[in-house]
Amino acid sequence: MQNKRKIVVSREQMKSKTRKKISITGIVMIAMAIFVWWGNNAIQVNHIIFTEEKIPAVFDGYRIVQISDLHNKEFGKQQERLLQVIESQEPDIIVVTGDLIDSNHTDVETAMNLVQGMVKISPVYYVSGNHEKWSGVYEELKEQLQQAKVTILEDEKTLLSKGNDVIDLIGLQDVSFLEETNREVDTVVETTIKRMRQHKDTFQLVLSHRPELLEAYAESKADLVLAGHAHGGQFRIPFLGGVAAPDQGLFPKLTAGVHKKEDTTLVISRGLGNSIIPMRIFNRPEVIVLTLQSHESTIN
């Protein structure tokens, strides 16, 4: 009888251990699911202050919200969560650096829900990304953007005016639209930016989808470039950076944050949505708030 009791107790213990393992596994899986959901939906606002002697004093404190790589991602009904974040930053302008839509599951309506909300907050300036080209519906998107009073820049320049001073705002159409297959992309980009420079002392802000063209931006002597495309490396390893990025491969250098080459500064947005890989890890959706600071204000 004593041996039988020992066997019975042993089986009960085994069942108890099994139940504990199942419970722990379930809790871990739920926690991981919550973490992944949070990491792909909790918007992170990153503030950057940029100081340059070419920035006119009247533009001191000028706020630019950068949106990039939405890829049809939805943040609440009619994009209300994302729009609340943008509006709370009180931007002077909003810039979109490409890939509003995704060529794998194109949804112009979702993109336009965001756009129609943004134009009620501030003037919106837009440059295309590679997914606009690949989608085959760029002309449809472009027409709707124009109807919404968005300023579309396709290798063009416009002036941001305040008081009696101006800033050059240059927008580059994504290089996937280029037809010059026998020319180097870097050369085309460099030449395009240089062509639009009229006065060397005027501050030059460039919108482009591609961060990997930093060499060309530096050669053109652009002052400040805002880009996206790299999705922050998709999966980020804490303290090390992104794992992979389009056109840069594994462990890319240009996936997020501020980078400097010669006299050119590049700011890279990690973007908001996903494309081929449906999730981000340690890489929350990002809204960048860039505040211009006049060199004069730092002296005073």
Task: Please outline the helices and strands.
Elements: H1 2-41, E1 44-52, E2 63-67, H2 80-88, E3 93-97, H3 108-118, E4 124-127, H4 130-135, H5 138-147, E5 151-152, E6 156-162, E7 165-171, H6 185-195, E8 204-207, H7 214-220, E9 224-227, E10 236-237, E11 241-242, E12 244-245, E13 249-250, E14 257-261, E15 264-268, E16 286-294, H8 295-299
Parallel strand pairs: 1-16, 2-3, 3-4, 4-5, 7-8, 8-9, 9-15
Antiparallel strand pairs: 2-16, 6-7, 10-11, 12-13, 14-15
Helix pairs in contact: 6-7
| Shape summary | elongated
- Order of SSEs, N→C? HEEHEHEHHEEEHEHEEEEEEEEH
Q: What Rg is obtained from the alpha carbons, in whole angstroms? A: 24 Å
Helix content: 25-40%
Kindly estimate the percentage of residues that lie in beta strands according to DSSP: 15-25%
Q: Which regions are unreliable across 5 or more consecutive residues at pLDDT < 50?
A: none
Structural class comes to alpha/beta
Strand arrangement across the biggest beta sheet:
1-16-2-3-4-5
Give a count of the beta strands, DSSP E runs of length 2 or more. 16
Query: What gap, in angstroms, lies between the N and C termini?
Result: 92 Å
How would you characterize the overall build of this protein?
This protein is of the alpha/beta class and 300 residues long. It has eight helices and 16 strands. Strands 1-16-2-3-4-5 form a six-stranded mixed beta sheet. Strands 6-7-8-9-15-14 form a six-stranded mixed beta sheet. It has a two-stranded antiparallel sheet with strand order 10-11. A hairpin with a 2-residue loop joins strand 6 and strand 7. Helix 6 runs parallel beside helix 7.
